[in-house]
Structures are given as structure tokens and as C-alpha cells.
Design a protein that fits this description.
Helices cover about 30% and strands about 25% of the residues. By secondary structure, the chain is α/β, with parallel strands linked by helices. It binds zinc ion. Zinc ion binds near residues 250 and 313.
Length: about 425
């Protein structure tokens, strides 16, 4: 499937799409109601291109249907005795969404996740330590099972076990792999040094990363690779769907790997208009499941903004590739310019070691933003007052040049911003009650 010719794939996906829509119309009161209200007939979707006739599905609507008809809402399409797993997807807004899977759904989750893990370099014979949150989070046990599907030997570490993990890795004396968020990899390196261990000598040689987009920032990736002496590969997914994309050995963008199991679309994040998945196109990814039994999703909005590339890759995979620009919920607009925290991170990382790389963006006022947003940044060690002033000016000017907005830079001492084992939070909307 990963190397199929696009025409062959389209025929396979069209047939699967017709089956999935037919199934959702029969089994899901949620979709029946939604399509009736929009006055559309899913029976008229014959080809993948016709999908644009159907309305989007937002996470919020699914949360609402679960609140109105618990336990799983009106989109539960399989009886309880067919369900074998439930997880809750987090998210930046609202309550967690509960998603359940049949055995067949789990197989699909494993299949696409195994494609991603294989692309990222995981193989049978590897011992992989998974340091994701196993508590309800999809990236925990579900990703774990995708690695077992590849045939790797997976150790469920979870989070908050860093010292034990370091001890185990040290005692094993063999090359091993790590699956974690990029911020956890740096956290673990600090812990190792506190224990008197040199990270690069511990033998972690494969790094699979997911959960935050930091690996897309060149400086961040290099820091992780150098600190641990490993090859870092990015895996991208959504709890509602699975791990849908990963970097291959060439590491030139994330390969989309959901062929035959999902339909991916690109749309304009603001207007929802469909966009061609063409080289250089920028937009939001939208997904439709093709094989879902318990919880089908039709035109489910990811709210992740990406830049697509379609050039051929030496690895032979034929799907499109993409780079993540940021989440639309993380994006903020300053005088008409879209700003993603990831892009700010890129600039901040360019200033290391004068800056540590840790930062927070503090938005005091709701949009439209009229005053320069505050950028709180940690400076490195041993800088005098004049050096700090010059550093502040240079950082401000660099952001003006690269990102075309003016921040109010606040320099704070090294080590004063919180470090986290989990996803690093960069953007705080103080007007909404966020607390840094
Ligand atoms: Zn490739």
C-alpha cells in the first residue's frame, strides 16, 4: 500500500469509502442526523473527490453527543460486547473524548501504526522503551501495540520512571530504542547527568518521537541527536485515528501512511475550501476512516496545519509528505500575521547557548492583539546587564525579520521556566485563565 500507484490506490479507496459511508448511514444516528440536517446524501459519494459534498466533523460535536447520550454518544456503531478497548483523547479544549475500538478497529490501528514505526526505523530485534503516558492516552498502550505488531520488544515505561529507566538501560549494555516526546528526551538527559551518567554513552541509538512537533525544529532535533548520539525520527498521529505518518531514513518530511485505511484531504483552515495535495500547498489535514466499526469518522478536522511536498523519495514510498506548521488552536494572529509557537521556537533555538531554548508566549488580551505579545525567554548563564540588553534587542529584531511581528521580550534566568516530561506548553492565553 505504501508504494502503490496513485491510480490503483484511488480505486481501492473509493470502494472502501462507499462501504464506510453506507455503514455510517446505517449504524450511526449521529451521522444520519448530521447529513439530513445538511441536506446531503452520502449515497451520492462515488469517488474520493466527492467527499467534499459532506460536512466536516468537529471534535466538539462528538463531545456534545457523548454528553447528551453517554457512555459513547450517538456515533457508537458497535454493540458493547464487540468493544475491546477504550481510550480518552485529550485535547486543548473541552472534556476528553471517549473512543472505543472493536478488535478489527484495533487491527487497523496496529497496521497503520506499524507502517509508521517501520518507516521510522523500528525492526524486530529492537528493544524499545516507551516513555509515553499510558493513562488513557492513545499514545500509550495503543502505540505500544503498534510496535509489537512490527515485532519489536517493547518495554512499557510510562512517565515518572526516569531513574529506574536509566538504571535498566545502563545495566542492559546493548543498543536500545526510546519512544517519547522530544521534550522528554531532553528531560531524561538532564536526569542522567544528575545521576552522573553521560547520555551519549547509554546506548540509546534509535529515537522515535511523537506528541509534540518539536522535532520539526532543526536546532531541537540536532540537540536531541547529539545529546544521545541517536538517530531521531518523527511519528505523527491523532488519538482518534492512530499514527498516520512518519519520517523514513531520508528524514525529509513525514510520509503519509494511511493508504487504504483512511482518506486524507487538505483544506483551507479558515474557509474549509478543499485544496489540492500539491507540492508546496499549505492547509489543514482532514481525515475520513475507511474501515472503522465502532466509531467511524467522516471528514474529521485535525486542526493541524501542514506544508505538503510531493517529490519522489528515494525510499520508494509514494504517498505525499508533509511538515507540521502548528495547530490552529496554537496559532495566534498579530496584525494579520499568523504566528505558530513552533516558528518562535525555531528562532529561539538559533540563539543557543545565549538562550537555553526554553520560552513562553504570554497573550494578555483576546484577539485582535493590539500590543506586542510577551515572549518570556530564558537566557544562558553568566551574562551581564549590558549583554542582556543587547541580547534582548537582537532577539526582538530577529523575530521581526523572520516572523514579521514584534514581541515584548522578557529575559529570565536559566532554569526558571518549568520543565516537563510531557508535551511542552509554549502558548498561554492569560485572558482565558491559562496559568504559566
Ligand atoms: Zn521516504
Amino acid at each position: 500500500m505504501e508504494t502503490a500507484r496513485p491510480d490503483d490506490l484511488r480505486a481501492i479507496e473509493a470502494a472502501a469509502l462507499r462501504r464506510q459511508l453506507d455503514y455510517a448511514r446505517t449504524a450511526s444516528p449521529f451521522y444520519r442526523r448530521k447529513w439530513d440536517a445538511a441536506g446531503v446524501d452520502p449515497g451520492r459519494v462515488g469517488a474520493v473527490e466527492d467527499l467534499v459534498r459532506l460536512p466536516f466533523t468537529e471534535k466538539r460535536e462528538l463531545q456534545e453527543t457523548q454528553e447528551a447520550s453517554p457512555p459513547l454518544g450517538d456515533n457508537r456503531c458497535a454493540p458493547l460486547d464487540q468493544l475491546v478497548r477504550m481510550q480518552a483523547t485529550g485535547g486543548t479544549t473541552g472534556r476528553p473524548l471517549r473512543i472505543a475500538f472493536t478488535r478489527r478497529d484495533v487491527d487497523v490501528y496496529n497496521e497503520v501504526g506499524a507502517r509508521a514505526a517501520w518507516a521510522a526505523g523500528l525492526r524486530p530485534g529492537d528493544v524499545l522503551f516507551e516513555c509515553m503516558n499510558y493513562a488513557l492516552y492513545a499514545g500509550g498502550v495503543s502505540d505500544h501495540m503498534t510496535f509489537e505488531t512490527v515485532g519489536a520488544c517493547v518495554a512499557p515505561v510510562g512517565i515518572g520512571q526516569s531513574r529506574r529507566l536509566l538504571e535498566i538501560i545502563r545495566d542492559m549494555r546493548m543498543p536500545v530504542g526510546l519512544y517519547a516526546t522530544p521534550s522528554y528526551a531532553l528531560h531524561l538527559a538532564r536526569m542522567a547527568r544528575e545521576e552522573g551518567l553521560e547520555p551519549s554513552e547509554l546506548g540509546i541509538r534509535k529515537g522515535l518521537f511523537s506528541g509534540d512537533a518539536g522535532l520539526g525544529v532543526p536546532g531541537y532535533r540536532q540537540q536531541i541527536e547529539r545529546t544521545w548520539n541517536l538517530a531521531a525520527r518523527d511519528i505523527w498521529g491523532m488519538g482518534e485515528l492512530g499514527a498516520l505518518a512518519a519520517e523514513c531514513d531520508v528524514a525529509d518530511g513525514l510520509h503519509y501512511l494511511g493508504q487504504g485505511l483512511f482518506v486524507a484531504e487538505l483544506v483551507d483552515g479558515r474557509t474549509g475550501e478543499p485544496l489540492a495535495l500539491a507540492d508546496g500547498a499549505v492547509g489543514e489535514l482532514v481525515f475520513t476512516t475507511l474501515e472503522r466499526e465502532a466509531f467511524p469518522l467522516v471528514r474529521f478536522r485535525s486542526h493541524d496545519h501542514v506544508r505538503v511536498s510531493t517529490g519522489t523519495c528515494p525510499c520508494g514510498r509514494t504517498g505525499f509528505r508533509f511538515a507540521v506548521l502548528g495547530r490552529s488552536d496554537d496559532m495566534f494572529i498579530v496584525k494579520g500575521i499568523n504566528v505558530y509557537p513552533l516558528a518562535v521556537q525555531d528562532v529561539v533555538y538559533g540563539f543557543r547557548p545565549e538562550l537555553t531554548g526554553e520560552f513562553q508566549i504570554l497573550l494578555d488580551e483576546p484577539p485582535p492583539i493590539t500590543r506586542p505579545p510577551r515572549l518570556r525567554v530564558e537566557h544562558g548563564e553568566a551574562l551581564g546587564p549590558e549583554e542582556l540588553d543587547r541580547l534582548r534587542d537582537r532577539l526582538t529584531r530577529r523575530i521581526q525579520e523572520v516572523l514579521v511581528f514584534t514581541p515584548a521580550v522578557e529575559l529570565v534566568a536559566a532554569g526558571s521556566l518549568p520543565r516537563t516530561e510531557r508535551k511542552a506548553k509554549r502558548l498561554y492565553r492569560l485572558y482565558q485563565g491559562d496559568r504559566p
